From TrEMBL:
Residues 139-184 are annotated as: Disordered. It comes from Apodospora peruviana. This is Extracellular serine-rich protein. Residues 161-184 have a biased composition (Low complexity). Transmembrane segments: none annotated. PANTHER family: CUPREDOXIN, SERINE-RICH PROTEIN, PUTATIVE-RELATED-RELATED.
Length: 210
């Protein structure tokens, strides 16, 4: 293996090791996303865990509350995920963060007006793009929008079985999806980010090759 190939391989392994999986409960406690304010780095993975009864997650538009970001601009959509009471769904929807721009997401279930009642969240809130103004706008919305077609912008994977599955205690295995072909890709290019520590490790690997 050439020195350059070895360096690239080391960078990829470090990136995978430094990426975080961030669990988000969808509807576990009434009509909420928990947590609803998240800080994420490029390469981190949002892991949406669905609870009863029938929720969705959609990347929203900052311009119009409870409406989806145009599909041609990227974003993500899980579709509706029916779930029995008492435990999270056996499938999680995972979205890889492609950059650190502010993202808003919501549940588009209109039976019970979930988005209007506060079922939304923000990733990397900005100076003006925050929960407070979005909540005010959502409260004035008549209905929530669902994108057409099947899921996109993320992948369904199996929630890893543990003796007691909690919101922070498990991560999914790379296993089959919810029965339909798994959506591919992420909310963008899906490139993994490398932290300062990761860069140091890559640098050390590079020096070993010289």
């Amino acid at each position: 293996m050439s020195p350059l190939s070895s360096l690239l391989l080391a960078a990829g392994l470090v990136a995978q090791a430094t990426a975080k999986i961030i669990p988000i409960s969808v509807g576990k406690t009434n009509l909420t996303m928990t947590p609803n304010s998240i800080a994420a780095e490029k390469g981190d993975i949002l892991e949406f865990r669905f609870w009863a009864k029938n929720h969705s997650v959609v990347q929203g538009s900052w311009k119009t509350a409870c409406q989806p970001k145009p599909k041609e601009e990227g974003g993500f959509w899980s579709g509706f995920v029916p779930t029995e009471a008492g435990a999270p769904n056996s499938q999680v929807f995972r979205v890889t963060i492609n950059d650190t721009q502010p993202i808003v997401f919501y549940c588009s279930q209109n039976t019970g007006t979930h988005c209007k009642k506060g079922m939304f969240g923000v990733v990397n809130a900005g100076v003006e793009l925050t929960l407070e103004p979005y909540a005010k706008a959502a409260n004035g919305s008549d209905s929530a929008g669902s994108p057409e077609g099947g899921p996109y912008g993320g992948v369904f994977e199996a929630l890893q079985a543990t003796p007691s599955t909690t919101d922070g205690g498990s991560s999914p295995s790379s296993s089959p999806t919810n029965g339909a072909p798994a959506p591919s890709g992420t909310n963008g290019a899906g490139a993994l980010g490398v932290s300062f520590v990761g860069m140091a490790a890559v640098g050390a690997a590079a020096l070993a090759l010289i």
